[in-house]
Amino acid sequence: MAKVLVIDDKEEIRSVLQDMLEMSGYEVDTAEDGKKAKDLYDKTEYDAVITDIIMPEQDGFEVILDFRNKNQLDRLIAISGGGRTSSEDYLNIATHFGVTSIFSKPPNYKDLLAKVDEIVASHAQG
């Protein structure tokens, strides 16, 4: 069973994404910030990771840098609802870090699930 990590400081976002992914057959771990997520992804290999950008403790940009250093950006999906500026600004910055999969919040869940399926399938092929 493919494993997905969902990182978001909003409980309702984590819960909706977890339910959606589990109903689609994925095993899902969640974390409310990048610091807690790092503890998880340092111990477990995930087939796909969905990370919010703006979070307390350790933000999504730090998660992105960790995955870039591991050459695993192709497993990462960045999402953002914005903050002091628009979500597009944060997602644009994420693309400059090398993230290719981005979604504004709230995401189109069908499209997000399709992207997770695509990422997982590409890694299953090896």
Automatic annotation (TrEMBL):
Domain Response regulatory: 3-120
SUPFAM superfamilies listed in its UniProt record: CheY-like
Pfam families cross-referenced by the UniProt entry: Response_reg
Taxonomy, superkingdom: Bacteria
SMART domains tied to this protein: REC
Keywords: Phosphoprotein
Modification 4-aspartylphosphate, positions: 52
Descriptive protein name: Response regulator receiver domain-containing protein
Source species taxonomy: Bacteria, Pseudomonadati, Fibrobacterota, Fibrobacteria, Fibrobacterales
